[in-house]
Design goal:
CATH architecture of the largest domain: Roll
CATH topology of the largest domain: Dipeptide-binding Protein, domain 3
Number of strands: 18
Number of domains: 2
Order of helices and strands: EEHEEEEHEEHHEEEHEHEEEHHHEHEHEH
Length: 449
């Protein structure tokens, strides 16, 4: 089976197990039950895992990553640093877009020019392009990129940008400018990727149909530059309820699902028809806090008009109150690891020498008292209830642990379609969410801060 996936398996506090049904050779359409529906088929709109996983089947990037998040060739077959700020990429010859047009360096320049032009993206890809000062198509199969300063992370960040065709605007030659590229016509609209008009990449599958809320159908690219996919078609069906996803699998309505309920895994294994794929991924479940000065965050009370999250002692107390190992063993049934840093220790960019985060409720209470909260305070912890494995249950467990040290916590769990827009608008004082770096290292969330 040839299915592109970025962000596989299990990570941080949360396990994400995929279940695969052993199909016979006569089956030509693979049916996949998704835990979350992609927001768009535009590879440059909203850096969100469901979007990225889907668009990676349609659009290739200059470089790819291995399951261990090491960089490997993609549309660029090789690259080298010419000096401290200049990189040269040799592009593959003979690669065709789904409409039959030839891929060349101008398509790359056009794609990177478009990234900052995608307006109203809740999580834009500009984080991965702002280091670029200049980009030049030296010839059809040679690309030169100049960064604003020495920037060794460039190859890793290029894996995030899907390449689209400059033919979408009649192959107009584009001159790259970090201040904004100029073109004679309008930039391709996200809506035209969703309706299929512009969903034209070089990837292993072609757009066939998108019925929002029901399914997305892709068909095999018979002219793919790598080995052709095993499946003639892949049908992605959003089934956001975990129980319904497992039921769909067991009734053979779908062939593969992601993120089954942890408690349902033994039942799936007992059926004898399925294989549980387990692996450590870069997914991390974290707690975000509004620590802006001068205002009490929403959902916080009993702090005498102060923002408690500005005090390092409070933040440390909240961390010390969390028994991560209990969450792993009791809520995740062992399908996770305690989060000790922004990456699992097996990945590039992680520090294998960092000590484990401690669990010490008594020290947590002492720190709260030192910070001026001997009787604690009240907070509301916001969380999605359908995005990550056992997300709401993890939030409830954290709330109980905080309440035991005097920080009375209630949980406000909601669907991800409600949670993420509210998070982006800054409507929560403290929240539980997830993060996974496609680059395999931790600079992107730190630079986002």
């Amino acid at each position: 089976m040839h299915i592109n996936r970025n962000g596989r398996g299990i990570a941080g506090m949360v396990a994400a197990a995929a279940v695969c049904f052993g199909l016979g050779a006569e089956a030509r359409t693979l049916k996949i039950g998704l835990s979350a529906e992609p927001v768009a088929l535009d590879p440059h709109f909203m850096n969100l895992t469901p979007n990225n996983q889907l668009t990676s089947h349609i659009f290739d990037a200059l470089l790819n990553t291995t399951p261990e998040i090491e960089v490997k060739p993609g549309l660029a077959e090789s690259y080298r640093a010419l000096d401290d700020t200049t990189w040269e990429f040799k592009l593959r010859k003979g690669v065709k877009f789904h409409d039959g047009s030839a891929f060349d360096a101008n398509d790359v320049v056009f794609s990177f020019c478009r990234v900052p032009q995608v307006l109203k993206s809740p999580s834009p890809f500009t984080l991965y392009t702002k280091s670029i000062a200049a980009m030049e198509a030296v010839d059809p199969h040679t690309l030169r990129i100049t960064t604003r300063g020495p920037y060794p992370m460039l190859p890793r960040e290029l894996v995030t940008i899907g390449i689209i065709s400059a033919g979408l605007i009649n192959d107009e030659k584009v001159k790259y400018s970090p201040e904004g590229c100029k073109i004679a016509s309008a930039w391709p609209a996200t809506a035209d990727f969703n309706n299929g008009k512009h969903a034209i990449g070089t990837g292993p599958f072609k757009y066939a149909e998108y019925v929002k809320g029901d399914h997305i159908l892709l068909r095999r690219n018979e002219a793919y530059w790598r080995e052709k996919a095993d499946w003639e078609a892949v049908r992605f069906q959003p089934i956001t309820n975990a129980g319904s996803r497992v039921a769909a699998l067991l009734s053979d309505d779908v062939d593969l699902i992601e993120n089954p309920l942890i408690d349902d895994i033994p039942q799936i294994e007992r059926s004898g028809k399925y294989k549980i794929a387990r692996d450590l991924s870069v997914r991390l479940i974290y707690l975000g806090m509004d620590h802006r000065a001068g205002e009490v965050p929403q959902g916080v009370a009993g702090t005498n008009g102060k923002n408690p999250f500005q005090d390092e002692r409070v933040r440390k107390a909240l961390s010390l109150a969390i028994d991560r190992q209990t969450i792993v063993s009791k809520i995740m049934n062992g399908y996770a690891e305690p989060a000790e840093q922004l990456l699992g220790k097996r990945f590039y960019g992680a520090n294998p020498d960092l000590p484990a985060l401690g669990h010490d409720p008594q020290l947590a209470k002492k720190l709260l008292a030192e910070a001026g909260y001997p009787n604690g305070f009240e907070i509301t912890l916001a969380a999605p209830n359908d995005r990550y494995v056992n997300d709401a249950q993890i939030a409830q467990a954290v709330a109980q642990m905080w309440t035991r040290i005097g920080v009375k916590t209630k949980v406000d769990a909601m669907t991800s379609s409600v949670f993420f827009p509210k998070t982006n608008k800054g409507e929560f004082g403290i929240w539980l969410s997830g993060w996974g770096p496609r680059t395999g290292e931790v600079s992107s969330p730190l630079r986002s801060i």
